[in-house]
C-alpha cells in the first residue's frame, strides 16, 4: 500500500524529530501545527539559509539515499558555519515521485545522524509528490557583532582555507571515469568519493573564528568563484599562491593541471575560506586545532589600485611566477 502523506511525515520525520535527544533548539512547538514556534535568543541574531538539491543537477539519480540525507543537511549547516552561527533548527521541503520506505528510512538516517551531532532540530517542512527535490532551510544563532560576513576583508589580511580543496570534484570525476590512468588505489578512491558524498560542515571552526576572521564564506562553487564574492563585497583584490592551496594525497595522484582545476574551480568542497589580520595567525592556528581541522594560509588581500577598479585575483605559484588561469570553462556537476 502506498504511503499517505501524513503517515510518511509521521513515520520518517515527525517521530524521529521528537526522538532527537535533548536538542537545545528552543523550539516551543515543532512539527504538527500550522507553524513551528521558536523562542528568540536574547541578544543574538537569527541566521537563516536555504539550499536546494535537485536530482540530475546536484546529485545523480542513483545516489545513496543515506549519503543524500547527510549532504542535504551538511550543505545547509555549512552556510551557518560560514556565518559563524550555531545551528539551531531546520525545515525540510521534500518532493518525491514514488515514496519508497527503504529510501525514506535511509535518507532520514543520514539526515538525523548529522542533525543530532549538531543539536539541530527538525521543526517543520512540506511534503509533496513530484520530481525528487530536497530543500532545507536552517536557522542558527550568532551574537549581534560576531557574524562572519563577506564584506569585511581588509587590505593586508591573510587569506585562509580549511581542510583540503578539490576532493569532491575529483570524486565526481572518479564516478564519471575521468581519470582512469591516475587513480588505482581503492583508499584514494574511497576518500574522494566520501568528500563528494559526505562533506563535513565546519561548524566548530566557524564558531572558533568569531572575533578573529574579518570575512568568511563556504567554498561550494570552487575557490576561484567563491573568493571573488568576498572580493566584490569587500571591494579588495587578492593574490593567491596556487601551490599553497591545500590538496589531499589522493588528489595529488592526478596530473598537476587536473589537481589545480579541481582545487581552484571544482566545487562542492564545503570548506571555509576566510580572511584575518596577520597578527591573528597564532589564534587562527589554535582555532583550527580546537575545531579539529587544518587551516592553511594561501594568499593576501590588497587594496584596489583605483576605487573604480573591478576586484581581481592574481594567481601565482610557489616561485611567485604569475599564472594566468582560465578556470571558468571547467564544468562541474554542481554548476550553480
Ligand atoms: P500545511 O497543510 O499546514 O502545510 P502539512 O500537512 O503540509 O501542513 O504539514 C503538517 C505538519 O508536518 C506541519 O507541521 C509541517 O511543518 C510538517 N511537515 C510536513 N512535511 C514535513 C517534512 N518533510 N519534514 C518535516 N516536517 C514536515
Ligand atoms: Mg504543507
Brief summary:
By secondary structure, this protein is of the alpha+beta class.
Q: What does the secondary structure layout of this molecule look like, with pairings?
A:
Elements (H helix, E strand, L loop, with lengths): L4 H15 L7 E3 L7 E2 L5 E11 L10 H19 L2 E11 L4 H17 L3 E9 L3 E11 L14 E5 L4 H10 L9 H12 L5 H6 L6 E5 L3 H12 L1 E6 L14 H10 L5 E6 L4 H11 L3 E9 L9 E4 L5 E2 L13
Parallel strand pairs: 4-5, 9-12
Antiparallel strand pairs: 1-2, 3-6, 4-6, 7-10, 7-11, 8-10, 9-11, 12-13
Helix pairs in contact: 1-3, 2-3, 4-5
The structure holds adenosine-5'-diphosphate (ADP) and magnesium ion.
The site of adenosine-5'-diphosphate has 13 residues, from helix 1, strand 4 and strand 5.
List keywords for this structure.
about 325 residues, alpha+beta, four-stranded mixed sheet, about 35% helix, disordered C terminus, binds adenosine-5'-diphosphate, binds magnesium ion
